[in-house]
């Protein structure tokens, strides 16, 4: 595989930089939008991802990154938190509202649990604390894409399947929930959560289960992110269906389950 050579500082100084690459064999599908104002980090990440066949577009501030993310489709958005003009949390929130299926990884030197939880609550799918190796980030991207759209989804369910239960249809390929005649678009994390729950109706999944299987985390400090995603999903469903559905049920002190409507 031919490596991507680091771009010159003059190129990295522009607000948007696209890495060209050549690779032997079949390149990795998809493209990456990297929103990062540090040219050295831009260079190292672009080099590593380019070696794996990704097409990398770089933006150096939040406003330009937001514009680019809303204009073009990217496989994954890699987003720094501390950005000029518009911070990464606000970019993440606006991108998530406009594009529920966009995969987003946040990167930041702010590595406290609160910062990580904030990023996840704003809609990020993963959060990587600096310093990190570009190889680690590339592995996170691969893992995220695999969880979001691999051949098998959560609990071994075919990602192309339509799962029906309790009058609800979950279309895994379209990232869509259908209920009461409504078709509701889901974010990748909402999709993964519902796919896991609906695949085992009646089973109570602890927050630890959900963190491990949907986020790939085991740290107890992330429990709040699970609750935030579930609450946001309930709000979305209530707005579209007129009521919070009875089949998405919290079990006090334990976690969540998909309840079949004939259960007590």
Walkthrough of the structure:
Mean pLDDT is 78; it is low at 1-28 and 150-158. The protein has helices at 9-12, 39-51, 62-71, 88-98, 113-121, 134-149, 188-198, 207-215, 223-241, and strands spanning 16-18, 31-35, 55-59, 76-80, 103-108, 126-129, 162-165, 168-171, 176-179, 182-185, 205-206, 248-251, 255-258. By secondary structure, it is α/β, with parallel strands linked by helices. Strands 1-3-2-4-5-6 form a 6-stranded mixed sheet, with helices on both faces. It has a 4-stranded antiparallel sheet with strand order 7-8-9-10, covered by helices on one side. Helix 2 packs across helix 6, helix 5 (113-121) runs parallel beside helix 9 and helix 7 packs across helix 8 (207-215).
CA-based shape: globular
pLDDT average, as an integer? 78
**Tell me, what is the CATH class of the largest domain?**
Alpha Beta
Rounded radius of gyration (Å) = 19 Å
What brief labels describe this structure?
264 residues, alpha/beta, Rossmann fold, Arc Repressor Mutant, subunit A, 2 domains, four-stranded antiparallel beta sheet, 13 strands, globular, disordered N terminus
């Amino acid at each position: 595989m031919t490596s991507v050579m680091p771009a010159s500082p003059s190129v990295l100084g522009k607000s948007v930089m696209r890495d060209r690459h050549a690779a032997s064999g079949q390149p990795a599908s998809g493209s990456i939008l990297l929103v990062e104002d540090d040219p050295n980090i831009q260079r190292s990440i672009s080099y590593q991802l380019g070696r794996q066949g990704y097409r990398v577009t770089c933006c150096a501030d939040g406003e330009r990154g937001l514009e680019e993310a809303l204009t073009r489709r990217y496989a994954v958005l890699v987003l720094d938190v501390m950005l000029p003009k518009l911070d990464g949390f606000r970019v993440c929130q606006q991108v998530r509202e406009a594009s529920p299926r966009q995969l987003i990884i946040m990167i930041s030197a702010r590595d406290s649990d609160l910062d990580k939880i904030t990023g996840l609550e704003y809609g990020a799918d993963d959060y990587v604390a600096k310093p990190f190796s570009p190889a680690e980030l590339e592995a996170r991207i691969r893992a995220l894409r695999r969880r979001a759209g691999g051949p098998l989804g959560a609990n071994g369910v075919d990602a192309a399947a339509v799962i029906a239960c309790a009058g609800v249809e979950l279309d895994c390929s379209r990232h869509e929930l259908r209920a009461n005649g409504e078709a509701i678009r889901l974010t990748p994390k909402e999709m993964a959560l519902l796919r896991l729950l609906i695949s085992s109706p009646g089973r109570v999944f602890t927050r630890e289960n959900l963190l491990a299987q949907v986020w790939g985390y085991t740290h107890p400090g992330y429990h709040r992110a699970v609750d935030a995603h579930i609450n946001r999903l309930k709000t979305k469903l209530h707005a579209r269906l007129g009521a919070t559905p009875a089949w998405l049920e919290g079990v006090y002190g334990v976690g969540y389950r998909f309840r079949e409507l004939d259960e007590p």
